[in-house]
Automatic annotation (TrEMBL):
This is Acyl-CoA hydrolase. The keyword Repeat applies. PANTHER family: ACYL-COA THIOESTERASE (PTHR12655), ACYL-COENZYME A THIOESTERASE 9, MITOCHONDRIAL (PTHR12655:SF0). One of its GO terms (biological process) is acyl-CoA metabolic process. Signal peptide: none annotated.
Length: 427
């Protein structure tokens, strides 16, 4: 991967290039790449990735996925012309990450390729799968990218990255090589990518930041207000904290202690500050997107663990996340997390993580990413508490978290249906 990225970045962006980039047709196979991670066969490699409970660190894999997506993108835009103007690839978004075998400690293969191309952007699909210890890992053999994209019982994870190509000098978007399909199966994969883009747009238009809650949700919001109004905030009369007496419908003496199976949303909050060292930078001297995702995922796990009072949660998925602005070396990165939706009888919870860059000299803060993770409690003896919001803003987060759980389940089913193996006659 490093050689492919280094090839494009050897070009000096300060040199004026008058020659226009020549676009060449590329197939999915042209950008295909594999990375082998023999965790079961290599104790040395496993030592770098092992989690406290013996599982593979998903956050560490996110760094590999981001690097692989970048290498695939550079491979697609390459036109084998050293005189062409240099192009920089940036991660625009990660559309979704689904983990199917989060406990598997086996030999992994990460593989992916470009599945859809716009004017300057491209979608890259990557999957991880379990491979046998004696698997043929020789490079150079012909790849059936359509077959390689199918999901089966050995699939560990699946994700989509959106990468954008910009001119290294002007930082403006540049047109990239078009993508052609060579089989009905490849056309199907490209159509799946198109449908995925349409679904994303539709969900964004229906989000709570653009549209008011539905009539049914408004009724549930009122029920939530009536419920939280009857409890003592923080369940601590001795501290004299009864909430807002002026706004409440009940007097302090009428309020009840918070039930043991409920937790105030504000009490689930956790945060951390990260000094971004040069060791975390990418080839463009910005902080590596995979590093930011890793830190957010690990904070979500810590937040879920303290919420459940257990080390039992496992990460099932990460919703789509957009990289709004670069994070520079030396930045102070703030991450704040909280559980926004959870409750019995199901075993999952939604954790929101907001990443912001703090400008110490200007005393300002800018949000770079907002992450949403779905985690599940694997300990059947633990009853997952309900999260109770107290303000309108928290109720919006609660509604959004519940929506995301429903959308996530649907997205997971669609992914498995869309990428189920085709009948042999259509392959």
């Amino acid at each position: 991967m490093d050689k492919i990225i280094h090839k494009e970045n050897q070009k000096d962006p300060k040199v004026h290039h008058t020659k226009e980039r020549v676009l060449v047709d590329k197939t999915m196979a042209d950008s295909h790449m594999d990375v082998y991670l023999p965790f079961k066969s290599s104790p040395e490699l496993l030592e770098e990735y092992i989690f406290v409970d013996g599982r593979i660190r998903t956050g560490k894999l996110l760094e590999d996925l981001d690097a692989l997506a970048g290498a695939i993108a550079y491979k697609h835009i390459d036109n084998n012309d050293p005189q062409a103007a240099p192009v920089t690839i940036v991660t625009a978004s990660v559309d979704r990450l689904d983990l199917f075998l989060p406990k598997a400690v086996e030999n992994y293969r990460l593989s992916g390729n470009v599945t859809y191309v716009g004017t300057s952007s491209m979608e890259i699909f990557i999957k991880g799968e379990i491979v046998p210890e004696n698997a043929d890992i020789e490079n150079g053999k012909e790849i059936d990218v359509a077959k390689n994209s199918y999901l089966d019982a050995n699939t560990v994870l699946a994700t989509r990255f959106t990468m954008v190509a910009i001119d290294s000098s002007t930082h403006k978007p540049v047109q990239i090589n078009p993508l052609i399909t060579t089989s009905p199966a490849e056309k199907r994969i490209r159509e799946v990518a198109k449908m995925n883009k349409k679904r994303k747009k539709k969900e964004a238009e229906a989000s709570l930041t653009r549209q008011a809650p539905t009539a049914q949700e408004s009724l549930e919001m009122h029920d939530m207000f009536l419920e939280f109004s009857q409890y003592v905030y923080n369940n601590s009369k001795r501290d004299g904290d009864y909430g807002d007496d002026f706004a409440s419908t009940l007097s302090p003496d009428e309020r009840k202690p918070l039930p043991d199976d409920c937790v105030w949303m504000s009490d689930t909050r956790r945060d951390t500050l990260i000094l971004c060292h040069a060791q975390f930078r990418n080839v463009h001297n910005n902080i590596f997107g995979g590093f930011i995702m890793k830190k957010a995922l690990e904070l979500s796990f810590a937040t879920a663990s303290t919420f459940l009072r257990s080390k039992a949660p496992i990460v099932l998925s990460m919703d789509g996340v957009t990289f709004r602005k670069p994070v520079y070396v030396g930045s102070l990165l703030s991450m704040k997390a909280g559980v926004v939706w959870a409750g019995y009888p199901h075993r999952s919870l939604q954790v929101r993580v907001v990443a912001s860059v703090i400008d110490i000299e200007k005393n300002s803060k800018e949000t770079t990413n907002v992450f949403y993770f779905t985690l599940s409690c694997t300990d059947d003896d633990i009853k997952v508490p309900r999260v109770l919001p107290r303000t309108y803003a928290e109720i919006m987060l609660w509604l959004d978290g519940r929506r995301r759980r429903t959308h996530g389940l649907n997205a997971r089913r669609l992914l498995l249906d869309d990428l189920a193996p085709l009948p042999h006659s259509l392959g």
